[in-house]
Design a protein that fits this description.
Layout lengths: L1 H28 L4 H6 L5 H11 L5 H13 L13 H36 L4 H15 L2 H15 L15 H35 L2 H8 L4 H12 L1 H26 L4 H11 L2 H29 L6
Helix pairs in contact: 1-13, 5-6, 5-8, 5-13, 6-8, 7-8, 7-11, 8-10, 8-11, 11-12, 11-13, 12-13
Length: 313
């Protein structure tokens, strides 16, 4: 196990290098000039050139990438062009709401998706199965911002049960935290829940038709033992894969959800930085998201070995 983890960590290094190169390259090729934005609308060409030279934007691509890469290796993500605060400080200030939103989404989405998928598989082609699949199609098809605005209008504007926008940290009280996080996490988690529920159903239906399940039923084992212990464990690998891959949906959805609900997290920071062409912040946040995705893939590969000892790398 430890050798496997070490190999996966070593294999992740070139992946992160390529990701860093791609992230820096996309920002480098993106339209817009932060020097011109800083200089203002009425700045002269010479003033813009001086600002570009001060920021190092006039240097060749690989020189800029090399300097940025060396700073990243030392834990320095640079300084914001507009606020002059370190990027690590800005990320530290904004990462709390994003982690809270992601954790809340994962908890309730998994808590609902797995039981719904199991019910749909056990009662395949019956009314409950059709209901779960219809709910999954709706959740997977509707855009996140549409779901967010609909939930906001119904539960916040019309009924007044939840605040329209904003965020309260859990340190200010659990009830207020839950009131503010409920609608954003529901918006973000519907797609994730639909994806996991469909995969759970498909995997379980395949496993429930296997000979060892019929043997377990013939021995008189309980429904709990047959479905939740024998069948679900053998169907776990595709489900775990879907859970890990769905994190990419969460990372992308965080940007939209935080913008819709006015949550001061990394997603909102990313949008604001893109609008201002604040390259160091954009690069730092994208690199952090990419690192999180690599770590999630490493965790998924590790869980494979735990849930199915037959798998060896």
């Amino acid at each position: 196990m430890w050798m496997f983890l070490l190999r996966r960590l070593l294999n992740s290094l070139p992946v992160m290098f390529v990701v860093s190169l791609v992230v820096f390259g996309l920002i480098y090729l993106a339209p817009g000039d932060p020097a011109a934005i800083i200089a203002g609308e009425f700045a002269t060409a010479d003033e813009v050139i001086k600002i570009r030279a001060k920021l190092g934007l006039d240097e060749p691509f690989f020189v800029q990438f090399g300097k940025w890469g060396l700073r990243v290796l030392s834990g320095d993500l640079g300084v914001s062009i507009f606020s002059n605060f370190p990027v690590t400080t800005l990320i530290g200030q904004r990462i709390g709401p994003t982690l809270a939103l992601t954790a809340a989404t994962l908890v309730w989405a998994l808590a609902l998706a797995l039981p719904l998928g199991i019910i749909a598989a056990v009662r395949a082609r019956k009314l409950s199965d059709r209901f779960v699949m219809a709910l999954s199609v709706i959740g997977f098809s509707a855009p996140s911002f549409v779901i967010g605005y609909v939930l906001m209008y119904v539960f916040a504007v019309r009924l007044g049960w939840f605040p329209v926008q904003g965020y309260e940290p859990i340190a200010n009280g659990v009830p207020e935290f839950l009131r503010h996080i409920f609608l954003p996490s529901l918006t973000l988690g519907l797609v994730y829940m639909a994806l996991i529920a469909r995969m759970t159903r498909a995997s379980l239906i395949d496993v429930l038709s296997q000979d060892f399940i019929r043997t377990a039923n013939a021995k008189g084992l309980s429904w709990f033992s047959v479905v939740l212990i024998h069948a679900l464990r053998n169907a776990a690998v595709p489900i775990v894969t879907t859970v890990g891959a769905g994190v990419a949906l969460l990372i992308g959805g965080v940007v939209i959800t935080e913008t819709v609900f006015g949550i001061p997290g990394l997603g909102r920071l990313t949008v604001d930085s893109i609008l201002r062409r604040d390259y160091p912040i954009i690069q730092g946040v994208l690199l952090l998201f990419s690192l999180a995705y690599v770590v999630i893939n490493l965790i998924v590969d590790t869980v494979y070995v735990i849930v199915d000892p037959r798998i060896r790398y």
